[in-house]
Amino acid sequence: MTDQPTPTDGAPPHAVPTHTVVIPSSVSMVSLLGPRDELLRTMERAFPKVEINVRGNEFRMVGAPDDVALIERTIDELLVVIAAGQPLNRDAVERSISMLRNRTAERPADVLTMNIVSNRGRTIRPKTLNQKRYVEAIDKHTVVFGIGPAGTGKTYLAMAKAVAALQAKQVNRIILTRPAVEAGERLGFLPGTLNDKIDPYLRPLYDALHDMVDRDSIPRLMAAGTIEVAPLAYMRGRAQPLDSQVLTPDGFRRFGDLRVGDLVVGSDGRPTPVLGVYPQGVKPVFRVTSEDGASTVCCGEHLWQVTTSTDRRAGTTRVVTTAEIAAALPHMEIGLPVVAPVEFPERDIPTDAYAVGSRLVGQRALGGSGLSGSGVGGAGVGGAGVGGSGVGGSGVGGHGGTLLADISRDYFHNSIAVRTALLQGLLDAGGEPVPAPDATLRVRYAAPNAQARDDVVFLVRSLGGLATVRDTGRADRHVVDLRLPPEIVPFRADGELSAYVPTRVRRPERRVASVVPVGEAETQCIQVGAADSLYVTDDFLVTHNTLNDAFIILDEAQNTSPEQMKMFLTRLGFGSKMVVTGDVTQVDLPGGTMSGLRVVQDILQGIEDVHFSMLTSIDVVRHRLVGEIVDAYGRWDERQPRPGSHDRRPRPVKAPSEAKTRSDVKAQADVNAPSGKER
């Protein structure tokens, strides 16, 4: 690279020198100049007051030193891009010049060579500085908002990062969603099936997905639930039928009767509040049954925290859908969590619980109808409710002739200590420890009738154990095999207690036995406040309501209400990332409905690990006119009167100070251009 005066006779002594840049011989000049010198012409248009000539592998430039230096830096950056194997185009040259003029800390080559994901020979990269910062924010933060006008690559880049995360096994699934409310249309009044109605709203997501994932593998990945594309209303649909049972501190309750603020029982056995109740409509449902006979009904997208043999060795868990469990059976062993001993509120009882249990065995043998009371148990063995209609006759504890529905509630929905004492009374009178095939101990209980069987099953499951009913073929003999956690001692009597060695007691492990379709049902889903998002449903099964190890993208978020935005964000699970994209200038919500995207920045400002990336018209990567159109509408919008809250036209969210509009960059280019003779 040399500076030398132009050897022209009679030239004035102050003639501008020629600056020469020599390109390495290993670089094809066609790759640098473009077909028909298109890229050279792009540089000439950007620097109209600099004379640029190319001879062989040399650039010779005459002009203001600042401009010449900027061109040289541009050439250096373009050479780095070429060396990275990326072909140049007019857009890359223009953006490189723009970034250099704005004196950004990042080099243009760092932006243009930042590979995200490749498919069929095509590599997806950011094209602008703000896009690069947006992509880096997704790497650094758990929740990222990408806000900006159409064409800035918000969703496309987020999807590329999601695919890259899936390929790197950083997540187990990708969920792509957007609200199906655009141009004032309502899904219920559109013709066709559900898929016909929602596909037009989701088509942009499918199209982008096809650019990043092999087309032949997409149906397989979607069928397996690895990639899910759904409207926002259905994304939350990890649903159970309204007639399912959910455990509360007062016992089992109909799922459809839950309201926000109610308490349910979490996996730790403690109460957790219901934060949201979301109707899901009629859905195909499946019965999930475990090896111990516990079962519940839910939709195919319902979530479960499970363990495979690999997970058990690694001490980890994963979250999968009902459909994924069905696909894995019977080839894979799927484990479910077992609820911790449930902490029902302590209640006063008239008689010692152990004595009640002991007497109850004898009473059941004589045909008593049960202690646990009508309707307080839930769906018990074989679908029957746990508990009967109350004890008649002489009663329990000397209360002759008294119906014990209330007392039964007090015994079966009492503290862990009371329920343990009740179970000990039952097992001392009708149970025994027996060795299991794996050399551990379990307990076998011989119940005289179905009600006694169901009472023991309820107690064992409520104490964090498993109870498996064995078919004896006799109505007067029901055998139940029990496994209890080591901290629950099932006997008091000396003989049984001495034979029950705690060191041989294995913690209960529940396995899925089957998943079968059972038709359709009206469903809903709930959101709970528990840190692990687990709650207890039928037969003390522990189920899930959030999304772990997933990369979740909410597109067109300007068309969510604040309530929908909150619902979406609070479904975040462990090991997951969320990216929310939208354009606050294109809200299509009905009049009077506030956009959740417009208020979320004020709500979440200052929360750690939540980041807002602002993109502007300069980041538009569609047709060159799109950026100008975005700016024109922005200027027009600013001129319009603001009559007050009745005007639902949103004010644009302001980008950070360093983000410039396309007009700002053009003005900056005019300032940087030196005065002098134009070519």
Brief characterization of the structure:
This protein is of the alpha+beta class and 679 residues long. The protein has 4 domains: 2-113, Ribosomal Protein S8, Chain: A, domain 1 (2-Layer Sandwich); 134-227 and 549-664, P-loop containing nucleotide triphosphate hydrolases (Rossmann fold); 241-338 and 512-536, Endonuclease - Pi-scei, Chain A, domain 1 (Beta Complex), CATH 2.170.16; 353-508, Endonuclease I-creI (Roll), CATH 3.10.28. α3 (65-83) crosses α4, α6 (129-140) packs across α7 and α13 runs parallel beside α15 (416-430).
Q: Layout of helices and strands, plus pairs?
A:
Layout: E1 2-4, E2 18-22, H1 29-33, H2 38-46, E3 51-55, E4 58-62, H3 65-83, H4 90-101, H5 108-112, E5 117-119, E6 122-124, H6 129-140, E7 143-147, H7 154-167, E8 173-178, H8 194-212, H9 218-223, E9 227-231, H10 232-235, E10 240-241, E11 245-248, E12 251-254, E13 263-265, E14 271-290, E15 295-299, E16 303-306, H11 309-314, E17 318-321, H12 322-328, E18 335-336, H13 353-365, H14 405-412, H15 416-430, E19 431-435, E20 441-447, H16 450-462, E21 466-474, E22 477-483, H17 494-499, E23 510-528, E24 534-536, E25 542-544, E26 550-554, H18 562-569, E27 577-582, H19 596-604, E28 610-614, H20 624-639, H21 662-672
Parallel strand pairs: 7-27, 7-28, 8-9, 8-26, 26-27
Antiparallel strand pairs: 1-2, 2-4, 3-4, 5-6, 10-23, 11-12, 13-14, 14-15, 14-23, 16-17, 18-23, 19-20, 20-22, 21-22, 24-25
pLDDT < 50 runs, ≥5 residues: 5-12, 182-190, 364-406, 645-679
Count of alpha and pi helical runs: 21
Q: What fold name stands as the CATH topology of the largest domain?
A: Rossmann fold
What's the gyration radius in Å?
Answer: 34 Å
Structural class: alpha+beta
CATH architecture identity of the largest domain: 3-Layer(aba) Sandwich
Beta strand count = 28
- How many domains? The number is 4
**Percent helix among the residues?**
25-40%
Rounded average pLDDT: 79
CA-based shape: elongated
Distance between the termini: 23 Å
Major sheet characteristics: 6 strands, parallel
Strand content: 15-25%
CATH superfamily of the largest domain: P-loop containing nucleotide triphosphate hydrolases
Largest sheet: spatial strand order: 9-8-26-27-7-28
